[in-house]
Every structure is written in structure tokens, then in C-alpha cells.
Amino acid sequence: MAGCAPVSSDPLAAAKLPALFIADLHLSAARPRTSAAFFDFLAGPVRQAGSLFILGDLFEYWAGDDDAASPFNQKVCAALREVASSGIAAFFMPGNRDLLAGDGLAAMTGMRLLSDPTPVRFGAQTLLLTHGDALCTDDLSYQVYRQQVHDPVWQTGFLAQPLDMRREFIEKVRNQSETAKRDKRADIMDVNTDAVANLLRTHGYPALIHGHTHRPGHHTYMLDGHRCERYVLADWHDHPIWLAYSHAGFSVHNRLPVAAAGGEQP
Q1: What pTM, to 2 d.p., does this model score?
Q2: Would you call 22 helix, strand, or coil by DSSP?
Q3: Distance CA 253, CA 266 (A)
Q4: Which residues pair with 52 in a beta bridge?
Q5: Cα–Cα distance, 180 to 184 (Å, whole number)
Q6: CA 18 to CA 24: how far, in whole Å?
Q7: 117 preceded by cis ω (within 30°)?
Q8: Domains of the chain, earliest start first
Q9: Residues 59, 67: Cα–Cα separation, whole Å
Q10: How far apart are CA 223 and CA 219, in angstroms?
């Protein structure tokens, strides 16, 4: 029809500045202070943004899109839906804790799902987004597990099980993971330098943004004559902390802890 603009099939076409990046919130009803911080973040700083990018582990775990029926998950989805309905472009890249998030979560929240990794371009600047766990190649046992749970055949079979059984399995895996971490060297659970370099080369030496490691920081590399930057997002505890990108460049922001009733488990 004459006069109608074409609709882009690229989900990132809606992305605009300023863009906010977060990861590793691990939201659950058992962490009320972090949950309160998240709702405060959505009602405050996000409303001044053009885009919101959540790079994985939004939830402590997500057993499948039918897991949204719990009151806590419904509240989180409703808050994100309100953000998307306000005109802010919201994007979600599943992490290792919520890798089973799919089109159902996208429909409930209004967020656009992103594959891992995904490049996004703002003017002359390309940002490469990834959750980060694929870069931890020194952790061989984790990479074997990651390959298994990312297999579509495995996921189909797992999602065919009753929700209670899935939750029970995930809780068992989480407990085993926490036990295994105590016996691993800290450097094994960080990103591998060669894996980072290979990813940057493959994507034309962009700025890299990721989470997963819970080691927030800013790293600079000289790679094949190109200056590359890597931004590691912080995990959340009782207050919001986010990376922002605007025409002025990158900046890190946080808010003081919000008041909430009850304690919070670590």
C-alpha cells in the first residue's frame, strides 16, 4: 500500500540510543532485595533509555516458557511488558540459567530474542553482544555440559517432561555446579584470551559486551593492529548496576540499595 513504510525483519532495527546493558540478575522470589532493585530499575533509569539489552541469567532458572505461571515470574514478565509497551526496545539473550527461554517468554514480555552472539550497530560503532559462557573454554567440564543442553534434540526431550520434574532436575544441577565451583581454580571459570581474540576477529574487531563471569570490568586489547574493548557486566545483588552506551560513549551506572522487607539469600 502506498505510503506505508516497510516492516523490517531485523529485530535490532528497533534499537536506539541510549542503550542500557545488564546481565546476571538471577531473579527469584528468594532474593527480594534484588527483585525490588530490578523493578526500581525498570521504573526509573530504563524509562529514560532508548533500548534495554538483557544478556542472560535474568532468572535464577527458567524451566521452560510454561514456568511463567508462577506469581513471581508473572510479575517480572508484566513489568517487562510494560517497558516494551512504553516504546522502549527491549532485547533478551538467554544465558546458561535461562537458556530454555523462547518465543513464549518473548510474547509475554514484549522483548525481542537475540541469538548468541549478536552484533548491533549504532552509527559507526559495532557492539558484539554475548552472554559470555561460550568464552570460558578452559572450563572443559562446563563446555561439555553446555554442548549437551544447547542441543535442540536434548531440549525438546527435556521440555516434554512435566514442569515439576524439570524444576527438580535444574535444582540438582545447580547444587552440583556450586559444589564443583569450589574445586575449580578461579582462572578456569573466566574467559579464555584466545577465545575472545578469535571472536573479535570473526566479527571485525568490535567492542565486546558480556556477562556470566561475575567479574565486572573494562579490558582493552591491541589485536592485529586494532584497538578492541571488552566490557564485562556486573552481577546484581541488592541494587541495580548497568552499562550504558550513548553518543558520548560508554559509562557505568548504579543506584543505592533499595529498601525491601526481609533478608536476602546470597
Answers
A1: 0.92
A2: strand
A3: 22
A4: 20, 90
A5: 7
A6: 21
A7: yes
A8: 15-253 (3.60.21.10)
A9: 11
A10: 12
